[in-house]
Design brief:
Elements lengths: L8 H10 L6 H11 L5 E2 H8 L6 H13 L3 E5 L5 E5 L6 E5 L5 E4 L5 H11 L9 E4 L6
Helix pairs in contact: 2-4, 3-4
């Protein structure tokens, strides 16, 4: 994965304020869990980790959703059907996920504008975006 520079708590606080949300100690705790787990975690895993701090699943879920909306977390599919959330700060990107070790890597090269226009023309939909995930074997598992 490309090295992701550390996001300051002050910048994160500003981002929350821009969206009209308070940056509470509970939300900071959720963010720190993801910062410390580069392979990502599921909502249930984060909930278990934060349970001793009396931070509930609803808070974890809402915080993850806000961090996703801000572009700081992306989700990848787990083989169990759950989503695992990983830190992301490169703007528009897609994830490559190893099906053996679950390593997730960002790929920012994406120009699907021609495909989006084709799909819009064929279906009548106004395409507003897309989510694309690649899977296979990472170099270590190949």
């Amino acid at each position: 994965m490309n090295t992701i520079e550390a996001l300051s708590m002050e910048e994160l606080r500003r981002q929350f304020n821009r969206t009209g949300l308070r940056f509470t100690p509970q939300r900071e705790a959720v963010w720190r869990i993801f910062e410390g787990n580069p392979d990502g975690l599921t909502i249930s895993q984060v909930t278990v980790i934060l349970a001793p701090q009396k931070i509930g699943q609803a808070t974890v879920y809402r915080t993850i959703r806000a961090l996703q909306d801000m572009g700081y977390l992306k989700w990848v599919h787990e083989q169990t059907g759950e989503h695992r959330f990983v830190v992301s700060r490169s703007g528009h990107s897609h994830m490559l996920v190893c099906r053996v070790c679950s390593k997730a890597v960002e790929c920012s090269d994406c120009d699907l504008s021609v495909l989006e226009k084709l799909i819009a023309r064929q279906t009548g939909f106004t395409v507003e975006g897309h989510h694309l995930e690649f899977f296979g074997l990472c170099p270590d598992c190949s």
